[in-house]
Amino acid sequence: MTNAQIKQIAEDIRTMRTRGAGKIGRAAARALKIVARTTKARNSAEFIKELDRVSKLLLGTRPTAVSLSNAIRFVTLKAKLIKDADLQTLRNIVMSRADEFIRVSNEAVKRIGEIGARRISDGDMIMTHCNSDCALAVIKTAFKQGKHLEVFVTESRPMKQGLISVRDLSRAGISTTLIVDSAVRHFIRDIDKVIVGADSIAANGAVINKIGTSQLALTAHEARVLFFVAAESYKFHPGTLVGRLVEIEERPSKEIVNPKRFPGVRIRNPVFDVTPPDYIDLIITERGIIPPSAAYVVLQEQFEWKPGEELI
Amino acid sequence: MTNAQIKQIAEDIRTMRTRGAGKIGRAAARALKIVARTTKARNSAEFIKELDRVSKLLLGTRPTAVSLSNAIRFVTLKAKLIKDADLQTLRNIVMSRADEFIRVSNEAVKRIGEIGARRISDGDMIMTHCNSDCALAVIKTAFKQGKHLEVFVTESRPMKQGLISVRDLSRAGISTTLIVDSAVRHFIRDIDKVIVGADSIAANGAVINKIGTSQLALTAHEARVLFFVAAESYKFHPGTLVGRLVEIEERPSKEIVNPKRFPGVRIRNPVFDVTPPDYIDLIITERGIIPPSAAYVVLQEQFEWKPGEELI
Amino acid sequence: MTNAQIKQIAEDIRTMRTRGAGKIGRAAARALKIVARTTKARNSAEFIKELDRVSKLLLGTRPTAVSLSNAIRFVTLKAKLIKDADLQTLRNIVMSRADEFIRVSNEAVKRIGEIGARRISDGDMIMTHCNSDCALAVIKTAFKQGKHLEVFVTESRPMKQGLISVRDLSRAGISTTLIVDSAVRHFIRDIDKVIVGADSIAANGAVINKIGTSQLALTAHEARVLFFVAAESYKFHPGTLVGRLVEIEERPSKEIVNPKRFPGVRIRNPVFDVTPPDYIDLIITERGIIPPSAAYVVLQEQFEWKPGEELI
Amino acid sequence: MTNAQIKQIAEDIRTMRTRGAGKIGRAAARALKIVARTTKARNSAEFIKELDRVSKLLLGTRPTAVSLSNAIRFVTLKAKLIKDADLQTLRNIVMSRADEFIRVSNEAVKRIGEIGARRISDGDMIMTHCNSDCALAVIKTAFKQGKHLEVFVTESRPMKQGLISVRDLSRAGISTTLIVDSAVRHFIRDIDKVIVGADSIAANGAVINKIGTSQLALTAHEARVLFFVAAESYKFHPGTLVGRLVEIEERPSKEIVNPKRFPGVRIRNPVFDVTPPDYIDLIITERGIIPPSAAYVVLQEQFEWKPGEELI
Amino acid sequence: MTNAQIKQIAEDIRTMRTRGAGKIGRAAARALKIVARTTKARNSAEFIKELDRVSKLLLGTRPTAVSLSNAIRFVTLKAKLIKDADLQTLRNIVMSRADEFIRVSNEAVKRIGEIGARRISDGDMIMTHCNSDCALAVIKTAFKQGKHLEVFVTESRPMKQGLISVRDLSRAGISTTLIVDSAVRHFIRDIDKVIVGADSIAANGAVINKIGTSQLALTAHEARVLFFVAAESYKFHPGTLVGRLVEIEERPSKEIVNPKRFPGVRIRNPVFDVTPPDYIDLIITERGIIPPSAAYVVLQEQFEWKPGEELI
Amino acid sequence: MTNAQIKQIAEDIRTMRTRGAGKIGRAAARALKIVARTTKARNSAEFIKELDRVSKLLLGTRPTAVSLSNAIRFVTLKAKLIKDADLQTLRNIVMSRADEFIRVSNEAVKRIGEIGARRISDGDMIMTHCNSDCALAVIKTAFKQGKHLEVFVTESRPMKQGLISVRDLSRAGISTTLIVDSAVRHFIRDIDKVIVGADSIAANGAVINKIGTSQLALTAHEARVLFFVAAESYKFHPGTLVGRLVEIEERPSKEIVNPKRFPGVRIRNPVFDVTPPDYIDLIITERGIIPPSAAYVVLQEQFEWKPGEELI
Predict the structure, then answer these.
(1) Do F245 and E119 make contact, defined as CB atoms within 8 angstroms?
(2) Looking at A124, A130, A134, A281, which residue is catalytic?
(3) Subunits close to D (at least 3 CB pairs below 8 A)
(4) In a domain, C308, yes or no
(5) Is B249 helix (H, G, I), strand (E, B) or coil?
(6) F36-94 tens-digit pLDDT
């Protein structure tokens, strides 16, 4: 019986064996496709019920993972809207929507690279923070088009993912400079464009991303340097449409120092911060380039979230 | 012969055995006092010449150390202005000015603590960066006065001097929190006042201080959080009166990462950055509290720098 | 004959016996439902004509009441779009749309309270102006959820509706402070969020509300305090889509002082002012939370206003 | 055979005998209408193919003229979407869409005048730049409504099209003042509203218009003077949805000075500049008034550009 | 014995029978003049001691009245600096300095009116807040010079001193309009200049004045309307040079409402607020016009406050 | 008799045969030196009277020329302060002060070039407006020091003095680009520093200079480009200390167009505009570099203008 397969997918998301917004979303789409292919439902109503049950199961594994609810909605919504159609039609719709989600998602980074690269000019000095596939795709695509670029990368304490970006860019042959997070403002006037990724994007265009992003955005804004966010469209957060706040995770203090060496000292280690839309010039998605003020529209048209509607 | 003593003082400054703005300034004052006490000059003219010679010797040891030129000027200026007075008068003036510089300098941190503490209110949340004696004096003085305080300290990469501040404040019994430099904007809305030190202060009130200071100031400014600089008055930079730029030192890249692990990657490690006066609410000196726009006046009245006059 | 009932409804709106955006809108919906239930029309065309006649009658009673035109449009648009359908279908559609408008409108304040309360955190200091059902619903809902809150209320001269809010909040058990309108900036740094209502909302997200609102918004903006508007979606003003300005009513000068005591002095008493969208963080409606930049979209999707279309 | 007519239309666009956004768009619509009327296609598929061929031919004449691609899309999209319908239906659709485009376009300036005039108040001091039909229509319509106006016009170097505007307004009986481009900030505090036209409008609401527009917008913004853009909706640039940059043409240096008199001096003569949406209060189109943040929506709903879709 | 006279002067200040910055300062000068005229001191040392004793007595009556310490310092400083001069010389100096203070102070309002009126142009719309002699002097002097003016006056809750200003201006024949405090932003775009008084002025140019002033300044700043402060130079606060904060008095809640009618409601009634120097264009004193950034210089040169020096 | 010489000097200033701030000031100094050398006065009192008479004569020739009153004051003030000294001493003082003024003034442009060049870095892109000796001196001095520079020059309508600058810089071998005034914002992001001259400088640091300067400063400020003013210290305007406004001259309309070709059109042609100090980073004088906030101090210490003192 296929239930085992679906359970395994859910389990892998829960235990974070499957991680990363894209992988989680595609896994959920795959699970729902399995439901459609293998369902024992005798009619449309039973099938819709089964879909709902599996959707809930999947959502429960990582309730705050925004790509999870977006993927489930994308795959199941059409079938639910015409739920009186015959069973085979509904199954086909779910399978084809699942395929579409997986395909678009798989190509998203590449497509973002292509679209974003249009905004990179020959000779640009670029700054990036942390380690984002989408942001690096934009830079590397522009570089492959023959544009001369230099890239400043911030260390990105505490986990120093900037070192991964530095190595990746440098190996691609791009002239790369490493600086500490504190040195952003010292160098910002030499920079033409900042490009970062996103963990999720709220309905008002605010971007939740690696701690330090909002400081970088503010500094770029002060110096009138363009600030781009590169992110797949399933990172737009539907819950924010009805007022939900995006929770900011805090991670163990030992990532910063050994707390035993500093008895009595509190150590705060938030993973993300929130960049207000006023400091963002463009959001580059696989579906095109939008100003942050259009995030609300994207949520409605991409995932057909209805006004007032809660998450599943 | 006393020349040996003076040479030793100069040597200690050059080799950085004597370091820190205050210590350097006081060492120079001491050297000049020795000249006045032990001079073999037979008349005023010879004495002034000897002063000039020793001044040049001292200045040459660390030509960009702003406290050095300020101290020398403070000690010698009066004698030079009345250079036709008799030898003994001039010697007395130099000795008494040297004593005054040393005394004021020695008490400066304490006095800054007292003056600055008046601007700290009971219940304040304070943020500081790096490790500044003057900034910590303000905080600790306010705390000793019975005010309840909480202090956020940034790590201050690459040398992490924030850890020294954290330990110092924590041992003083003050509730202290450590964060990475990137997390400033995430927490800034909880903060009432930011207090930092200064390496030097330009004629237009711009503050040169540890890398990251200007980003912190910008972030405080955005959130309408008060931003205070605590610094001795001999840190005001006279050269900026005639257009000299304050040079920003860069230190070895290995302070950030092992460069061998990142072949082909450039690593930039500036030690200081420049905070524009627009982001500074007050400068706390041992002579009182000034707005940054008064830096020009302080330079003129404290060290009697004349318009258009070059450094020694 | 039912005409009497409809005339009464219209009369009550005209004489302001029926007042308040919600009550006016629901009264209009009721009137149109009566038309649908009791019409003597023999075919769809006659029915549509009758709807148009009554719509005009209602609109004429308070031509600038934005909830009036929104309600009429909501109730009649669908029937008009399929005006070739049979009479009974059209009557049913109008009755069901009228019911929907009335139901949604009746629940709107409660729903706004629930959605808005998600943006209130435990320990928040809140400021409000004048006396808005929607704004108070947000505060009281959050309080009932067990969040600790303190609320500052401005007096709201000249009519001092702030006193009503103060009493309402205080009776609900919420810690409440009264201040004069001039004291907003003195206290704003202690405030976490400002919440006000709206009289109407323009297509560009500008909010028309009680005089003093825009000053409060500006002051909150300067201090980087969040500024929320809570308003039912039928307060969005369709006329602004085609350039109509929202007129600002002026009321009698005697509300401010006895004009006889100040002969020769002009007294100006505007009731509302306009808060620009730049100073508004969120608009909380019963359909969800939107950034002000989405007002244009709400008008189009909620009431299906077509580009370029004039009011009825 | 009609091909000759279509070739002539294309040729006239290419050689700029047909110029101006409106005329180009209408010419393209006319050409496509001729195709629909005179086609020899035997079935729908052949007709669609012919439409595509002619579309490409037209687009090739001025690949960067934004009204050209908008017109072609507007005329052909519906037919393509139902391409399986019978030939006659498709031909009718194309002809009627072409007529609609031509009619709306012809009336657009007049309609913009009417809508925009609502935002002009009696007694307004207005400033305009260069020579825009739409901007002047707004001013002249308001003046014909009996509003008292004064208009400041900038010279608009290098081509001094401001002189054309000055003459046009002055002949219409409007009190008109001419100033050099440099004098804008000196007079801006006397101005109530600035109105300019647009060459094209990007998806984020940025406006590309005659060089100097962005400086004027910045100056108006600094002085809190309202800044309106008046432009037909076919000037919204779909390519910007997928990241294309609007290229800024540079014209011959001799428009500025005789380059032979200044050997060795470079002379730069860009025709347009980009005004960021932050400095624009309203965009007045023939379909209504929008905030710049709604440009993205207009592009999608007016021309049904799909996310991610490239230009034809 | 004259001690009785001095005691009476001190008593009148303490009981606020003598009130207002100017009157308090002049009373103190008068008291010190009496000392000089009637002293029984047998030598200079005794006289200086007596001066110190009386100074302390006077200062103790209203320790936070800034004009009191400024007056005492102005009258006594010169004598103290040359304290070794003969008794008669010292007595003469004190008497003449007392006379000078009284004369300058008495003429200050008139002189401020003359200097300030130069910055008022024919046709200006002016706004003022509360009831300041200096601000009204500027307006009335300009009006007497034949300039056409209109003045908007805010009510100034809770004590409504705006009504006094309205009456004063109106009786002087000036076209005057009364508005509530909340209506400032609604009218500000019609205003050319705002003029207010000051309670005291800090070393950084911040102005402490009637509650609501800072909101008005912010609103003027947003609209780019000039904001002038008119104040006698003895209102500059020397204590702020060494970090003292200006305390903001709170007055009884019953000035706002009858607290018994609002049981459980807190009522806050601060009298003053602080306007930051960034929102002030000019400070008009009887000694000339200064930018707020020169407050530091005025304090030093007018009252010869030395850096670091505490209040008496 | 020498009176003839002095009358000629005065006449030359009046008829503008002697023009330019420096030349006017030096001519006045020369005239006063002639008085001192050739006076027939029999005692100091008569001499002072004669100085006053000639001062008035000179001042009357161009009452608004700020360098005139500054020069006269500089030359005569010391003599007036010690007016009881013997005649010869006073004559010597006047002669030596006149020599000093002439010498400093003659060297000022060169010295400004040297001081300002310190703020120019190798590789800088510089923009300048109109044709200022001081601004060009800074650029050319830096270029002679071997720094690589590129300079953008604005045309500066209506008189196009930018063409003079273009030629001057280009002949000096500096890479120069000419643009129209409207194109500033299009190119500003490529610029590192803007340098302009000044006609006069107000006590609050505002700079009066060629029309268009304030727009350029605003545009530089928006783009965070440094904005420098280069001007001799005798251009600081003492009248602004007591509230006098700097009048902005308007020149004939024919400089813009032939007014006969535009009957009924008003043409406004102001020569200068006012740049607020907020947009100025540094003022470069021959006495050093000051922030605009120090203009007040310069006026006081350079020309010893006393607070409240009127122009001569």
Answers:
(1) yes
(2) A130
(3) A, C, E, F
(4) no
(5) coil
(6) 999 999 999 999 999 999 999 999 998 878 899 899 999 998 898 888 889 999 999 99
What CATH number is attached to the domain comprising D259? Answer: 3.40.50.10470
Chains A and D are touching, with contact defined as 3 or more CB–CB pairs separated by less than 8 Å? yes
Best of F189, F193, F221 to substitute, by most chain A Cβ atoms within 10 angstroms, is F189
- Distances from the Cα of A130 to the Cα of A18, A187, A301, B202, E142, angstroms: 21, 17, 30, 34, 62
How far D119 CA lies from chain F's nearest CA (Å)?
25
Of D61, D85, D109, the position where a domain reaches its end is D109
Nearest CB among D166, D180, D181 relative to F262 is that of: D166
Contact E224, D189 (CB under 8 A): yes
Q: Are residue C105 and residue C123 in the same domain, yes or no?
A: no
Tell me the per-residue pLDDT of E280-309, one tens digit each, with 9 for 90 and over: 999 999 988 999 998 988 887 777 666 656
CATH at residue E104: 1.20.120.420
> Residues 6 or more apart from F118 whose CB is under 8 A from it?
B242, B243, B244, B245
- Are D222 and D287 contained in the same domain? yes
What string of DSSP letters covers E4-21?
A: HHHHHHHHHHHTTSS-SH
The closest alpha carbon to A35, from A85, A71, A69, A75, belongs to: A75
Would residue C130 show up in a list of annotated catalytic residues for this protein? yes
* ipTM, two decimals: 0.90
Question: How many structural domains compose chain C?
Answer: 2
A204–C291: do the CB atoms touch at under 8 Å? Answer: yes
Specify the DSSP class assigned to residue D293. Answer: G
Write the residue in E182, E212, E214 that is nearest to C211 by C-beta.
E182
Mean pLDDT score, E188-201: 95
- The answer to the question of residue C243 being in a domain is yes
F136 alpha-carbon distance from chain centroid: 14
How many beta-carbon contacts under 8 Å exist across B and F? Answer: 53
Specify the pLDDT at position A1. 43
Same domain, B194 and B70: no
Instruction: Count how many residues are written for chain F.
Output: 312
For C279-305, b/e burial (b = at least 16 CB within 10 A) is bbbbbbbbbbbbbbbbbbbbbbbbbeb
Tell me if there are at least 3 CB pairs under 8 Å linking chains E and A.
Answer: no
Looking at the complex, report in whole angstroms how far the Cα of residue D169 sits from the nearest Cα belonging to chain F.
Answer: 9
Min CA distance, F52 vs chain E (Å)?
24
Instruction: Count Cα neighbours of B178 within 13 Å in the Cβ-side half-sphere.
Output: 32
Instruction: Find the domain containing B55 and state its range.
Output: 2-109
pLDDT at E261 over 60: yes
* Helix then strand then coil, % of chain E, to nearest 5: 55, 15, 35
Examine the domain organization and report whether A168 and A222 are in the same domain. Answer: yes
> What's the whole-number average pLDDT of chain D?
92
C-beta of residue B255 within 8 angstroms of C-beta of residue B159: yes
- Subunits adjacent to chain E (3 or more Cβ pairs under 8 Å): B, C, D, F
Residues of chain F contacting residue D166, judged by C-beta atoms under 8 Å apart? 262, 265
Task: Select from C56, C84, C109 the last residue of a domain.
Answer: C109
Q: Is residue E154 part of a domain?
A: yes
Total-model pTM: 0.91
Collect all residues from A whose CB is shorter than 8 A from any CB in D: 111, 115-116, 118-119, 233, 281-282, 284-291, 293-294, 297-298, 301-302
| Model confidence band, residue D308 (pLDDT cutoffs 50, 70, 90) | low
The reply to whether C92 and C166 lie within a common domain is no
Are residues C162 and C155 in contact, defined by beta-carbon separation less than 8 angstroms? Answer: yes
Check whether residue A172 and residue A297 sit in a common domain: yes
Is A312 domain-assigned? no
Q: Please enumerate in sequence order all residues whose Cβ is within 8 A of that of E171, keeping only pairs 6 or more positions apart, or say none.
A: none
What span, in angstroms and rounded, lies between the C-alpha atoms of D91 and D97?
10
B1: pLDDT confidence band, cut at 50, 70 and 90?
A: very low
